[in-house]
Amino acid sequence: MNAITDNRLILVCDDEPHLREMVAEYLSERGYGILEAASASDMKSLLESRTPDLIVLDINMPGTDGLTALRELRSSSEIPVIMLTAASEVIDRVIGLEMGADDYVGKPVDLRELEARIKATLRRQNLVHAEIEQKDKVRGTVVFGPCRLDLDGARLFDKGGDEIPLTAMEFSLLRVFVENRGRVLNRDQLLEQAHDKGWEPFDRSIDLRISRLRRKIENNPTKPETIRTVRGIGYVFD
Q1: What is the pTM of this model?
Q2: Rounded-to-integer distance, Cα 176 and Cα 173, Å
Q3: Which of 18, 58, 159, 168 meets the CB 3.0–4.6 Å disulfide criterion with 128?
Q4: Last-in-domain residue among 95, 129, 163
């Protein structure tokens, strides 16, 4: 069995029974454990007793929609999330990324593409976790602005000592910035060093990730002092 699928549990949340069952059957046949939820409330109930490795979450659901469910999830959890969106709804994709989604797949769902994006997302997590353990990487604690980043434990704290939730990709980006303090990095360099080589939706995706990071680490995200934009080139960590 592929190492990416071995013992990995995927939660599929979609109100369309046919699509949900089709995705669940396809992934199950490829070695994933599967949980199914027909609504955001069903997903919330499942998460009280189970912790999946990744969630496939539909945006357009009756009752609590997928974006609202994602916002609620991100208040307490950084489980990777791949959103299912209508092919024409670019704004939903942008909002989803800003809220902390890891990727998205358009409907109608191409099951092979979905599987590839699941593998890529889980692989990025594996790389981040592996790098934390490498002794030749920058280690210890880095203080910047009002925050303290624990590189050994992959944890971020505010000035009061409270932990600020980070996704695996956000930690990876911060680690890249810390390792390249004072050096201007363009988008391609950031994606390459943060192991996000599989990210293809649009070339400004890194800007959305950095915008979300700034809201977590800057005193004033509209006038960033820690991660500065170098117009026409990229970003620099001061």
Answers
A1: 0.60
A2: 5
A3: 168
A4: 129
Q: Are 100 and 212 in contact (CB under 8 A)?
A: yes
Judge whether 152 and 132 are in contact, CB under 8 Å: yes
Burial 118-142 (b: 16+ CB within 10 A, else e): bbbbbebbeebeebbeeeeeeeeeb
- Count of alpha carbons within 13 angstroms of residue 16, beta-carbon side: 12
Q: Is the peptide bond between 62 and the residue preceding it cis, with omega within 30 degrees of 0?
A: no
Count: domains in the chain: 2
Q: The CATH number of the domain where 59 resides is what?
A: 3.40.50.2300
Where do the DSSP E strands lie in 38-126? 54-58, 81-86, 103-107
- pLDDT tens digit string along 181-215? 888 998 888 878 876 555 554 456 788 889 999 99
The residue segments making up the domain with residue 119 are: 9-129
Percent helix, strand and coil across the chain, each rounded to 5? 40, 20, 40
Q: What is the pLDDT of residues 11-52, one digit of tens each?
A: 999 999 999 999 999 999 999 999 999 999 999 999 999 999
What whole-number distance in Å separates Cα of residue 209 and Cα of residue 161? 23
Is 87 in a helix, a strand, or coil?
coil
